[in-house]
Amino acid sequence: MSTIDMTTIHTTVQEITHSYAYQATELVQMLWQVQEKLSYIPTAAIDSFAEILKLPRAYVAGVAGFYSFFHDSPRGQYDIYFSDNIIEHLQGKPQLMDYLLQKLKVEIGKPRADGRVTIDNTACIGMSDQGPAMLVNGYTVTQLTQAKLDKIAELIETQTPLSHWPTEFFQVQDNIQHKHILLGEPLEEGLAIRVMLARGTDATLAEIEKSGLRGCGGAGFKTATKWAFCRNTHADERYVVCNADEGEPGTFKDRVLLQSYADLVFEGMTVCARIIGAHQGFLYLRGEYRYLLQPLEAVLAKRREQGLLGEQILGNPNFSFDIKIHLGAGAYVCGAELALIESLEGKRGVPRNRPPFPVTQGYLNKPTVVNNVETFALAARIAVYGGDGFAALGTKQSKGTKLLSISGDCLRPGIYEFPFGVSVREVLEACGAQDTQAVQISGAAGTCLSAKEFDRKIAFEDVATGGSVMIFNRQRDLLEVVRNFAHFFVHESCGFCTPCRVGTSLLKNLVEKVYTGHGTADDLKDMSHISQILKTASHCGLGQTASNHIADTLKKFPEVYRKRLLVEADFEPAFDLDSALEEARQITGRRDELAYL
Amino acid sequence: MQPEEQTITLDGQKIPFQPGQTIMDAALAAKIYIPHLCYHPEFKPHGSCRLCTVMVNGRYESACTMPAAAGQEILNNTKELNENRRALTQMLFVEGNHICPGCPKTGNCQLQAVAYYVGMLSSHYQHFYPYRDLDPSHPDYVIDFNRCILCELCVRASRDVDKKNIFAISGRGIKAHLIINSPSGKLEDTDFAVGDKAAFVCPVGAILRKRTRYTTPIGERLYDQQSIRIVGDSQQLHAGATKYGRK
Predict the structure, then answer these.
(1) Do A494 and B165 touch (CB under 8 A)?
(2) Which residues contact residue A415 at a Cβ distance below 8 angstroms, ignoring those fewer than 6 apart?
(3) What CATH code is assigned to B99-226?
(4) So what's the ipTM on this one?
């Protein structure tokens, strides 16, 4: 791509900042606009933003430098990311990616000389049930095969615009395999709001309290308590935020809700807004779900027309509420509410310190409810049907149902809605998993269960989960799984605190050392100790859980590591003298015996 | 009038606190040392170095960000916490290039002093050996990014006290790094000046004043004489702060 002249860039930034009313809180959205126009964010654009928005230049550069989808150098006209989750590895992603790299004659991460295409890796894009998958200029292409890649390569070489690509390439299946109360009967649009208005806000909150609904993102905080805290905090403004940044590898349930149940989600947000007294809501949509942006905007527009959003909702003069969609830009950490709020304010997604909690000081330091997509959808149902039916399902501490995103070694991957308390074994049977070696519950940050634990139950009091279930059969090498997760956390650590920033890299290096056959018993001890430090000393939930996969597998599957260890040595230095000499050999051209150790 | 004093218990010892104080504030006021690098009493707590991680009623929290509350039972000087502190210090050493004998800050460096305090005898982990260019462009200061530990004290000082916003962080994860607020990225193109608060707060040898680096001979410097546990933070002594710690 040719260099764009400075005046054009400045004009572009002027137009963009104007369309966002010069609000610095929209910086991430504005950076997206620049990148969509220019394929990257040039230095001159950073300068222009700083000048126009009166922000320090380094602040703007720091924000742009945080998100993995923002680039400071030109990308290809077709910018491709392969989803790099372990499930897609098992589905043949590495071979397919190599195939396309060779076919298009392009090096990973570098634009081709003619500027046509860039191919890179990205963390799980929420398509494990229909992978391998990729993003092309932000749009999702699923079920990749060599034949499909041949066609894609041709479309790229002929410079066919994305809008002329076969539409079936971009189809994303819901794959709903098992329905219960949430995914069952559709709800008439606006019904939850009508029932709430008839019942009253106090009584509606009481129903949510009675239902026992807890946050479905994984943390499980009581929803009614959160809403009540927010409502009872004295303030002139409050906000509702829907966390649609499901970045946990292997999860995709929110994708399905947003694709086919968006009204229910927005309805839940509107009910919440009325209860807590908020006028503005946000849907924080992960950048990987860019393909959902327009359809969701269309749902919002329709709801405004129906009088279900905007001023005077359903004719109530003192009930106004609207929802804005904020597009994330590739940062797993933003799924944590304390980072999400920073990102929503147009900043780097570094998690805030707590206390204070968002319910008292959240977005713009105003009381804010942040809930998961699934939580809002369930809240809308409870607003209609009351809390009793919901509370009758599940276990003592975990009421109702849970959506599970199931992928990996099973016959029927997809979405399963089960009442809490379902055992892992029942889940495995339902999806047709056989000869299962291990189940990774709740994503890379979650728990790795061995066959001995398959009678454990999905519930907050036993195995808590945000919904990701990844299945590995006995043919799989679990160290590949560990490696994949270790690389994931290096990529996704925000870099704020020492243990997570440095510890994730140390762990990755040690896993690689073991994987390549250089590990010793001492290295395993170090891995345990570093894991413990991450868990106990990290600033946020990401760091505190980033070593779970290593701690779990070291404990439950020690042979995965031990069979690769050097048995003759307690210790092998990480520094390999012979491979260090290779550079000298290359420079001098020496290949004689004396040039080797 | 003397209302009943509010107290927390730190390693079995009852210490008083004022409302609004963090555990760190209360500990330091009682002359109890909790290792730290990113904390500075004059700035908003940050909680990034994690050295001050203590156990509060059975939960791990950073002492510098956790508000003190009556009745808290806090463990600080325990074998486990100190071993973790040693490992965290080692992590900071291998992440950058901290070659103490070749660093002008030696003897006045908090990272080095904390390493002494936690009994660090080697860096243990594999060194990353980053390669980050120096910035010697400013007439009075040189910045060695290889020694930055991302405590953001300069970021906070320049933003909150000097009102200049000269420093910021960019990148993410292990690639997070300090950047300078000028189109060239060089310090000479900013209005950074000798009197700035940000010029005094670096706990390590990342921001160094030129031509004064060896005025005090090695061996006669702050931490050559006494432990950081006794003498406190170097940057505060340089900045003239005497809130605590000076014997």
Answers:
(1) no
(2) A129, A174, A175, A176, A177, A178, A183, A252, A253, A256, A403, A404, A405, A406
(3) 3.30.70.20
(4) 0.94
